[in-house]
Design goal:
345 residues; two-stranded antiparallel ribbon
């Protein structure tokens, strides 16, 4: 599969998630089977580009290509400038955010709120494509099915975006009104795929290998994008790839492998954020990784009291040492039990 001139390893994408898909997490998912990863959104407001938050989001040190950066905003000229800014800092693909449902984003008419103004949305697409095309950088678009059930206009926007030069469209099968509630529907995604010549990616509720296969079959899409299901389970991409190739599940990963992946991820995380901020922001990643494991809830509660990176890292190591003594392979959620675990165990 290609995005513009870039050939991807496979058709399994990591979704851009604010506060989650930073460089360490993207690299981990790529290492464990994802063929493509898009950064968490970067603002188009110039006055925020030098902020610590934006500089971390724009950090691509050591990241394998193609490097895809998602930009968010409401003004065509500002979005074009943001695209150029991120290309100068290593972006090889620019993704336009027209799918974020967060109120703080939509209240400024960015994210999925752009879909309420088709002319304005198209002006942004045209401006970004015009800024990227001379530099050989393809533009992709991520959107929802519409603002609400009565305003499902993703098909018309997708057609206009393709005509404007967008190289790929990703569709989350929910309206903005739904947020992340209810169930994603992929009939709209299938209609968009049938109407477009460029690649189309399906997103929303793809949380198992079976679901990935089902959505690819039902929509005819070129790829699937996984978001929340990769939190704490970044090897889901390799699980999906195996299922698509063989029609069967592969064994659960070895507990020692999961321990190594998580502790290496933590070390990379601390390097990016520093100790004080890194310990706090790492808690969610650790929590996602242990929540369904025996003793996981008790461990998470105790781990959240730690403020030292070294103590946090060693606590995670001991937790998985303890788990590996009893389970060679990671226990599936159904095997979880109310075992107790303390940080000193």
């Amino acid at each position: 599969m290609h995005i513009g001139p870039h050939r991807l390893a496979n058709n399994l994408f990591v979704a851009p998630m604010a506060g989650v898909t930073d460089r360490p997490f993207r690299q981990l998912c790529r290492r464990l089977g994802a063929g493509h990863a898009v950064s968490e959104m970067v603002t188009s407001k110039r006055e925020l580009w030098d902020s610590l938050k934006t500089s971390r989001r724009a950090n691509h040190e050591g990241e394998p290509g193609p490097i895809a950066v998602q930009i968010a905003g409401t003004e065509p000229a500002m979005m074009a400038e943001a695209a150029a800014y991120n290309i100068d800092r290593g972006a090889q693909i620019i993704d336009i955010n027209m799918g974020c449902p967060a109120k703080k984003v939509c209240n400024t008419w960015a994210g999925s709120a752009l879909m309420r103004d088709e002319a304005g949305a198209l002006a942004i697409v045209e401006a970004v494509v015009a800024a990227c095309a001379p530099r050989g950088v393809p533009v992709t678009l991520k959107m929802r099915t519409g603002w609400c059930a009565a305003e499902r206009n993703a098909l018309s926007i997708a057609r206009a975006a393709e005509s404007a030069g967008v190289a790929l469209v990703t569709v989350h099968g929910r309206t903005r009104e739904q947020g992340y509630g209810g169930q994603a529907e992929h009939d709209t995604v299938a209609a968009i795929k049938a109407a477009l010549r460029i690649p189309v990616v399906a997103n929303g509720d793809i949380d198992t290998p079976e679901r990935a296969a089902e959505v690819l079959r039902a929509t005819g899409c070129d790829a699937v994008m996984v978001g929340r299901a990769a939190q704490g389970r970044p090897w889901i991409f390799a699980d999906i790839a195996h299922y698509l190739a063989h029609g069967a599940h592969r064994p659960a990963p070895a507990t020692r492998d999961v321990q190594r992946w998580l502790t290496e991820h933590l070390s990379d995380h601390y390097r990016l954020y520093g100790e004080a901020s890194g310990v706090r922001s790492a808690r969610k990643h650790i929590g996602w990784a242990v929540r369904t494991l025996p003793g996981g809830e008790a461990f998470r509660a105790a781990m959240n009291m730690l403020d030292d990176a070294d103590a946090q890292w060693h606590a995670v190591t001991r937790f998985f040492d303890h788990l590996a003594d009893r389970h060679e392979r990671l226990p599936v959620p159904a095997a979880a039990n109310p075992d107790h675990f303390t940080l000193s165990a």
